[in-house]
Amino acid sequence: MPTLSFLSNSISRKNLMALTGLFLCLFLVIHLAGNLQLLLPPERAQTQYNFYSQLLSHNYLIKLVSYALYLSILIHALDALILTVQNWRANGAQGYVYDRRRTASAWYSRNMGLLGSLIFVFLVIHLKDFWFQYKFGVVPMDAEGHKDIYPIVVAAYSELWYVLVYVVSLLILGFHLWHGFASAFQSLGLYHSRYGKWVKYFGWFYTIVITGGFILIPLWVYFFNY
Amino acid sequence: MVDYQLDDVNPEMSFLEMLDTLNEQLVLKGEPPIEFDHDCREGICGQCGLFINGRAHGPLAATTTCQLHMRSFEDGDTIYVEPFRAKAFPIIKDLKINRSALDRIIQAGGFISTHTGDAPEANSIPIPHHVAEQAFDSAACIGCGACVATCKNSSAALFTGAKVSHLVILPQGKAEAATRVVQMVDQMEKEAFGNCTNTKACEVECPQGISADDILRMNFEYNKAVLLVDGK
Ligand code: HEM
Ligand code: FES
Q: CATH number of the domain that A20 lies in?
């Protein structure tokens, strides 16, 4: 039965990796679009961003999507772990004594597991500081009766080390996507020798916009809003 | 790793002739010769895979070990020679490995079912020239295992992709397309090869220049078989 075979072989496991990965990619677009509101002038950003956060946390559709999102991250990471351990095993007990295989491929394409693990660590920090704070922390109300999350964001991005953690983490995400976006389409077999390079170029464009956009926010807040 | 010294290496020697010369000297000294695989020595059988100076088939791209010559090295160099390493390629002795796992993938589906006997009329099935060429590009795979050896995941995706592709591209291969790809991919799994992560190192090292697009075609054919056709 095809429905039960989603872990049975390497291609099905890669399909799962690609589908969850692309879902996360789609989420990043929406996440970035929403967060660009943080670039607005402070007063405007405060009311608007607090309103936006309220909207997100009270909408059932968004709630549903967010559960799919948590699940995707967990499945993506778990599948990554399974794939990576299998790959180590497939290498056999003895590695090469003299190994220059790295000359034949890009370093980020060979280290997706490591890049992904670092992203996972970043996600834990990120969710703890904002998402957990918003949901379970004590957050004062703003003038319009929305949870006042905006000052918490600004306070976080007023620390240089914190901004640096974000910039570095986002660059790591960028390398993950530089390979991952096109790789996902290739894993799914959605590829044609004539159009393949456009998928790759679009992946690079996507990566630059997403990574650049997300990096801009903490830097902007640090330099202009604080 | 064992160190051997070999003097007076002729730059025109092939890498395998250099090993032959070394073995002759070892035998004269009463030592056991170094075991290594080879057959055609003209780059078409795929037997001669060695891992030389950290790369599959040595420093040149798109070259088998038998087609590598000593002029590609400097006088006085120390050269590291290892067998192709992967769990699916057990070492028989020294540099000789067992590549039967690749044969079993072919046995699982890398064929078409047809009547044997007289060759059919060549032009009874029209095949455009570019399609024939494309199939031939994939069929050029000699099964040497360099793709597995150079893959950080020891994946046989390029090999299997090539074997799936050269049949599915042609009209004769379409009838069994779904069962073929499912069975070959399942066999690849049983042989404990790793999972492809699209690093494309394989297409760089492949002596026949098989394109990694064959992997993507295999993925497509597999997903098509599972989603649209019952592959079993
Ligand atoms: C926002 C976060 C993330 C996004 C947008 C993302 C996106 C992607 C994409 C699109 C792929 C390509 C899928 C494929 O090749 O089939 C991928 C692959 C991968 N990801 Fe992620 N990922 C994220 C987080 C993570 C995390 C947290 C981990 C690990 C804990 C991880 C580990 C991996 C690994 C090991 C691969 C396989 C590499 C490959 O097949 O080439 N990723 N990711
Ligand atoms: S010995 Fe046949 S390909 Fe090298």
A: 1.20.1300
